[in-house]
Amino acid sequence: MTLRIDIGGLPSERVRFVASPLAELTAMLHVLAEPGHHPQLAGWAGEVWAGLPPELAERLREAEFLWRSSQADFLVPGRPRPTLAQELDDVDRIDDERYVTAALVTTCGSSRVRFGLPSPLTDPAARERALDVAQARGARQEAFAERLLADPAAVRARVRDTLEQCADAFFDAAWAGVAVRLAADLRVKNDLLRRQGLGAALAAVSGAVTLAPDGDCIVVDKLQDKATSARDGGVTFVPSVFGRPHLVAVHAPGWHPVVQYPVAEPEPSEPVPLETVTRRLEALSHPVRLRLLRTLARGPHTTGELAHAWELSPPEVSRHLAVLRRAGLLTGRRDGRYVRYRLNPTELAALGTDLLAAVLR
């Protein structure tokens, strides 16, 4: 499972390593929505939630799917700016169709609203499909999708205002604390790029990012097989302190390829009993179960969503989920007529940081 970024003939100056305030804010918002993915930041997340004004906290919950499982592409800029305000200005310049298409994202690849297909803003069938997908993700996402489709301008303004309130509430202080680390990482990466070439710089980014032997393609280990091209505008690598261990990639048609990578690795986990390790390794030994687990790492899913995404039968998916549940690697929670399954990242982390990073990429 890889993302392949075509860079054939791309001038070296179009491979950029640069920090993005908006991308780092998005990583922080993901931590707030999924603190279990980031145990080393759980204390920070708790303090932020405790200090948020109630209205801002509610706003973050109503729009959290924009950054919880799959970051909306416009939240990870292909051409970062020095300030958050400048990057939000760039987002404002995106037309409604591209914005809405990027915002109506789910974690199942086949359920993504695809660029180039009929827009849910103008096509009734596409609109109905988008709302059906949103409904399966929960009442909050359904309500947000309905408002977005009914009045894109109002929702866009509300999202920007929410992000600006985050700057005052916690981002500005956190950004001041991580900017030095990001700058230090960028110095290393750009020095490697200049002195030793792209292969060395990518090796320093992550073991999951490599340069193809012919030098014409960047290969990123991700959940699904995808391909994109950087020949027109180049490719951007954005470091993140709050994003670890995730490796975020923007690859949808019409968007500048971006890879947001962690600047540091998580600390080693505590050991667990051998019997528990054995049971979990057996659960992970089947390629379908590992694929399902990587999907669940991006957010809660129903059996039906998983079956549709991977072209499996619901009974087959249910059998694999049962094995993973017995191993303690996931939990299920009923919400109305749906049962949504979720990864237990803490239990997975006990097996090793390399495995956790591979699943959460």
Give me a quick take on this structure.
This protein is 50% helix and 13% strand. The chain has 361 residues and is of the alpha/beta class.
Q: Helix tally?
A: 15
The averaged pLDDT comes out at: 88
Helix share bin: 40-55%
- Assembly type of the chains comes to single chain
Coarse shape: globular
Spatial gap, N to C terminus: 11 Å
The major β-sheet equals: 4 strands, mixed
Strand order of the largest sheet: 3-4-1-5
- SSE series: EEHHHHHHHHHEEEEEEHHEHHEEHH
Please identify the structural class as seen in this structure. Answer: alpha/beta
**How many strands in all?**
11
Into which percentage range does the β-strand content fall? 5-15%
Gyration radius from CA atoms, angstroms: 20 Å
| Low-confidence segments | 107-115
List keywords for this structure.
globular, single chain, alpha/beta, four-stranded mixed sheet, 361 residues
Write up what this structure looks like.
With 361 residues, the chain is an alpha/beta fold. The chain is built from 15 helices and eleven strands. It has helices spanning 21-33, 42-51, 54-62, 84-92, 96-103, 124-137, 139-150, 152-195, 198-205, 274-284, 287-296, 303-310, 314-326, 345-349, 353-360; strands at 2-6, 15-17, 209-211, 217-221, 226-229, 235-240, 248-250, 258-262, 301-302, 330-335, 338-343. The strands form three sheets. A four-stranded mixed sheet has the order 3-4-1-5. A hairpin with a 5-residue loop joins strand 3 (209-211) and strand 4 (217-221). Helix 1 packs across helix 8, helix 7 (139-150) packs across helix 8 and helix 10 (274-284) packs antiparallel against helix 13. The longest helix is centred in the middle third of the chain and has 44 residues, at 152-195. It is globular and about 50 Å long. The model is unreliable at 107-115 (pLDDT under 50).
